[in-house]
Amino acid sequence: MKRVLALIASVGLIAASLLAADTSGLRKAPEFAFNVPGQGQKLLSQYRGKVVALSFIWTTCPHCQAESKLMSKLQQEYGARGFQAIDVAVNDNADLKVENFAKDFQVNFPVGWALRDQMVAFMGWTSAYYVVPQMVLIDRKGYIHYQTPQRQDENWDKLMKEDAIRQHIEELLSPNDSASGSKSAGSRVALTKKPS
């Protein structure tokens, strides 16, 4: 009887491992290059192993400035657990504005810049019409779990609220999730649909 129970427990652990490794329904984050003043080019893949909140911003946007303040708070709170916030400015002349933006808003994480077309391609959009900030939450293995919709709507508003961002970060940092899609796809789509 003990052997049967041990066998059942082993099968259960194997099944749980397989579920944790299931990334169906999730999109692998494509490689993304951005420039950080004084540090040169960075690659998104350099942050693999961390839960990443990648936000595309305009340095002149009040909503983006508020997002950066929030991300600084979350970086301080969750950084030791493996969280990494990154802001990438895509507005005109962002390369000339990013350094002052980071100083003015006392950002404690990488703030870089990239071309708008790079962001559109990364997000998987077919048009360049969008609102900012745009946020993508990526698990430790490089899969996108949450992505704001291209245009502002109810889902965009829900995802950009601090409590929703915090909940999603906690979920991806949770050892029970293994940050790889062990929860149902339905729970991830409740706030925003990821492009396929």
Topology:
Blueprint: H1 2-21, E1 27-28, E2 33-36, E3 40-43, E4 51-57, H2 62-78, E5 83-89, H3 94-104, E6 111-113, H4 116-123, E7 134-138, E8 143-147, H5 154-159, H6 162-173, H7 185-189
Parallel strand pairs: 4-5, 5-6
Antiparallel strand pairs: 1-8, 2-3, 4-7, 7-8
In short:
The protein has 196 residues and is α/β, with parallel strands linked by helices. 40% of the residues lie in helices and 19% in strands. It has one domain: Glutaredoxin (3-Layer(aba) Sandwich).
How would you characterize this protein structure?
This protein is of the alpha/beta class and 196 residues long. The chain has a single domain (2-189), classed as Glutaredoxin (3-Layer(aba) Sandwich), CATH 3.40.30.10. The chain has helices spanning 2-21, 62-78, 94-104, 116-123, 154-159, 162-173, 185-189; strands at residues 27-28, 33-36, 40-43, 51-57, 83-89, 111-113, 134-138, 143-147. A six-stranded mixed sheet has the order 1-8-7-4-5-6. A two-stranded antiparallel ribbon has the order 2-3. Helix 3 links the parallel strand 5 (83-89) and strand 6. The model is unreliable at 4-22 and 178-196 (pLDDT under 50).
